[in-house]
């Protein structure tokens, strides 16, 4: 499979970055703007700061502009979200509903290490 799909690795990475970034931005839009079935959170609270990171960071990741920095910050936010909101409920992610936070955390850690990649405003391979 690597021989067939491996030659498209740069394009698949770009797709991963774009899709993960926009999905993350939707979470921020829910918190900040009340879109997509969300509820606006109060200004200058921890949830509001999370919404800013999600909306702005998600867009930067998706378009590939300062993707490493934005993904690193987003990774940290997701780690905090997991340990503050999910882990206290139960140590097992599927039980505490924290698997999405963990998945975002590690996807963003990978993007932070890899950078903008192709199909990006900021350039890259």
Concise summary:
This protein is mainly α and 125 residues long. Helix content is 70%, strand content 0%.
Could you describe the 3D structure shown?
There is one protein chain. This protein is an all-alpha fold and 125 residues long. It has one domain (2-114). Helix content is 70%, strand content 0%. It has helices at 2-5, 9-33, 46-63, 67-86, 93-96, 99-114. The longest helix is centred in the N-terminal third of the chain and has 25 residues, at 9-33.
List keywords for this structure.
125 residues, mainly alpha, globular
Unreliable stretches (pLDDT < 50, length at least 5) are none
Mean pLDDT figure: 96
Whole-Å distance between the termini? 22 Å
Q: Write down the Rg.
A: 15 Å
Query: DSSP strand (E) fraction?
Result: under 5%
Give a quick account of the main beta sheet: strands, pairing sense, barrel closure.
none
Number of E-state strands = 0
Please tally the helical runs, counting DSSP H or I stretches of 4 or more residues. Answer: 6
Structural classification: mainly alpha
Order of helices and strands: HHHHHH
**Secondary structure: helix percent:** 55-70%
Describe the global form: globular
Number of domains: 1
């Amino acid at each position: 499979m690597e021989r067939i799909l491996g030659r498209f690795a740069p394009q698949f990475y770009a797709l991963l970055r774009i899709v993960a970034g926009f999905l993350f931005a939707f979470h921020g839009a829910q918190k900040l703007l009340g879109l997509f079935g969300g509820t606006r959170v109060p200004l200058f609270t921890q949830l509001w700061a999370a919404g800013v990171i999600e909306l702005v960071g998600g867009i930067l990741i998706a378009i590939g502009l300062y993707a490493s920095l934005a993904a690193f910050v987003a990774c940290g936010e997701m780690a905090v979200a997991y340990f503050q909101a999910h882990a206290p409920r139960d140590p097992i992610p599927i039980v505490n509903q924290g698997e999405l936070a963990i998945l975002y955390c590690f996807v963003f850690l990978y993007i932070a290490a890899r950078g903008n990649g192709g199909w990006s405003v900021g350039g890259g391979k």
